[in-house]
Write a structure and sequence with these properties.
Length: about 55
């Protein structure tokens, strides 16, 4: 089960370097997670200061 970034994201980028498989990128002014690459480790959710990353 992959994680997703909700509308609560403030686009701070704190999650991106914590992703071990580089599944997070910026698109149209917001961070997005590539569900096909995500390994559901939860590192991104743990580092998100706005709690905008949830498990789908």
């Amino acid at each position: 089960m992959a994680f997703k970034i909700t509308d609560s994201c403030v686009n701070c980028g704190a999650c991106e370097p914590d992703c071990p498989v580089s599944a997070i990128s910026e698109k149209d002014g917001a961070r997005v997670i590539d569900a096909g690459t995500c390994i559901s480790c939860g590192s991104c959710a743990a580092s998100c200061p706005s709690e905008a990353i949830v498990e789908e």
